[in-house]
Amino acid sequence: MVGSVSGLFRDGFEVVETGPGGFFGAVLDGTTGTAWFGVDDSPARIIRVNLDTMQVTGKLELHAEEQRMWCFVKHGHFGYVGVESPGGRLVGVDLDKMERLGYATASKYPLLAGTVIQDYGYFSAGSNPSTVMRLHLLQMQQGECKDWSTCRFEVSLNQGEEAVRAMFPDSDNRHLFLAMYTVPGRIIKMEIPSLNRVSDLELHVGEDKLLCGARYGDVGLFGTATSPGRLIKVDLNTMARTDALTFISGEDRPASLVIYGKYLFVGFGSAWAEGTSSVVKVDIERMRRVSAVVTREGQTWLYTGIGYKSLGFFGTRGTATTKHATIVRLSLDPTFPGVPVPPVYNESGSTWIAVNWLREYPEYHNGGAPVIGARVLLRPAAHHDWTAEHVYGYAAPDPAAPKDRIVRVHEEPFRLSEHGYVARVDGLQPQTAYKFAVILTNEIGPSHRSRSSDAMKTSLASWMELAWAAAAALGTLLLAAVYAAAWRMAPRIDVLYGDRDTE
């Protein structure tokens, strides 16, 4: 599968016989380019994939009773899998040898989320209220946990705070943040390693059931399991909500987050009507939807996502008919913008033309990065050379535009943060037809021209319009005067006929 939409490239996929459960959870060794993907099946399974070649290099099936997968974390060359059944079981795996090592019963309830910080694993059990526990993974690996209380410490959250669906630490591993699957969604901040509660943030009404979370510097990004989904931006130091983004219809349940540079790539835990899903690219600083790519038919429910080099890998879910799932590989680097669609809803005067066009996905391909410049080139329709001196230009502002040839500049930088652009070119000739071309520029460079097939014509000069209006007014007055004179001079009917006269 090779294709591209808006600068995100689907450049490969691996078909894995997973059953309808699909992928849930993944861990990465960034030095070797090896990833381990969890398969949410009965029993739960793990596959090892070389991300450089997209080849499966190992498979492991857990015991028959160890069914479904909730969380998957990595410490050294060991992996820890939280399964749904038996509840609370944490299965240890040697990731290099792809061998099951054993298990520990950490709770009576399934471990829904987990993360590793130094030599400790932090997990949350799906009770009501939820509990958060700290496990000493290094001691567990060395067989020093015969007294379970020496390796495990657990605290309870408040009543009603159930189902932690994501957790991650801050930049210096001093605090742990929990994304709650509550109504409305809630974010909890705890100290590390004491697990003392510091503060919490309850989201707005309608921002329900946090399904995923990730950290970008000192900012937390959280996705709601709503239709359409919402992305909430939170200052992790102050626990203050700073921004939010609502996705478009069909982009439901943001479930997996991959950060690359200043962008966030969001995989959705949903399926479009055509049996596809999507990955959306978001500018984190501006909290704006930059571009998107649609998966192939049958590649839905993107609950798993990891980033490696300049690539993103999203695990999909199988269907009742396909009985398999795929790992979709995306290129995360931006490219040149695609050719924009010619503008519509244009206006003109006697000496100016205003060209209007949108830049909303999917009509306008921006190369996977925000557009930072836009320009319009105009030429008289009778000429056919875009490089001649009679080319007019518009920069809004466009850093890639040749400034020595931009002879008409009308800058409105605020337009760049809206959903489109208005390029007004002044100083044109009255009653003259012009053709135009649109060029967009992102951080990589400019797009190819989008040339218009039809010409636009300026109107009459203002003095000619006034002259015609004056002539029309004068003509109207003359006609009115003639009519009035004729009416006054017409004979009266009673003068022509007397009372006794007959026709």
UniProtKB/TrEMBL annotation:
CDD domains: FN3. The chain crosses the membrane at residues 466-486. The keyword Chloroplast does not apply. InterPro entries: FN3_dom, FN3_sf, Ig-like_fold. SUPFAM superfamilies: 3-carboxy-cis,cis-mucoante lactonizing enzyme, Fibronectin type III. It comes from the Eukaryota. Keywords: Membrane, Transmembrane, Transmembrane helix. This is Fibronectin type-III domain-containing protein. Residues 337-447 form the Fibronectin type-III domain.
